[in-house]
Amino acid sequence: MKLRNQAVLAALVASMTISVAQAAKPVRIGVMPYGLKAEFMQMWTNAVKQDPAVKNGSVQIVVFDGNYDALTQSNQFDTMITQKYDAIIFAPIDRNAGSAAVAKAVAAHIPVIGSNTHVSGNQLTSYVGNDDVVAGRLEAEAIVKAIGGKGNVVIIEGPIGQSAQIDRSKGIAEVLAQHKDVKVLENKTANWSRAEALALVEDWLTSHPGQINGVIAENDEEALGAIQAMKSKGLDPKKIPVAGIDGIADGIQAAKRGEMTTFF
């Protein structure tokens, strides 16, 4: 996972320039992260800003913070359609709601490139991203191995309805179905939030004292929240394996300290 986006988004912006050298004015592209509170989408957005076409002025980007809300993103599409943007790079918070928003842009003849998270249907001009089912499988396998193939785990999901949550959960479920000695004690969303994951895992540690053997978090922010929760309860996170996804800076440092088992 990590920041493979920097390379692919650079290529993406370049592909949208459409003979920029011959254009009378810069190509204007709306960049739509689903939310900018957490590090991963900040990294994603900064990668776009570093593209040479953006830096030399041949491409103008305007960033729209989706604020983790499907209606906000839909309204942002309306703004870009009204203002006749040349193209949109879209990381949707909701698979189905995002599809309806894309349909409006397509009807207005504005190409939409999906990135990082999917929408339903096939109306995107193209998509750049990872296989989240595989990501879910990998982190589940890592935790199952770390706990010796048996024990109790908890799962911290992403925002319900987002493609990353759906697909990572699918991959996790496929692996756990093959390990009957691994029991899921709790399974709930923390909305990609470190703070929400902290509160969630603190509650779980209280409800299941001494019973949680591993934590499968669908992103690094949630994994880091789980680690903080363990520390707040006086537990050693090195003794309860935690896996995450994204490779954000804090996650990498946690892995180096041995507090996060792995990240993808």
From TrEMBL:
Database matches in Pfam families? Peripla_BP_4
User: What is the name of the protein in this document?
Assistant: Monosaccharide ABC transporter substrate-binding protein (CUT2 family)
Asked whether the keyword Lipid metabolism is assigned, the reply is: no
Which species?
A: Paraburkholderia rhizosphaerae
Q: Which UniProt keywords apply?
A: Signal
Give the SUPFAM superfamilies listed for this entry: Periplasmic binding protein-like I
Q: Which InterPro entries match?
A: Peripla_BP_I, SBP_2_dom
Q: Where is the Periplasmic binding protein domain?
A: 29-262
Q: What residue range is the signal peptide? A: 1-23
One GO cellular component this record assigns the protein to is: cell envelope
Name the protein family.
Belongs to the bacterial solute-binding protein 2 family.
Q: Report a single Gene Ontology molecular function.
A: carbohydrate binding
Q: Does the keyword Membrane apply?
A: no
Localization, per the record, is: Cell envelope
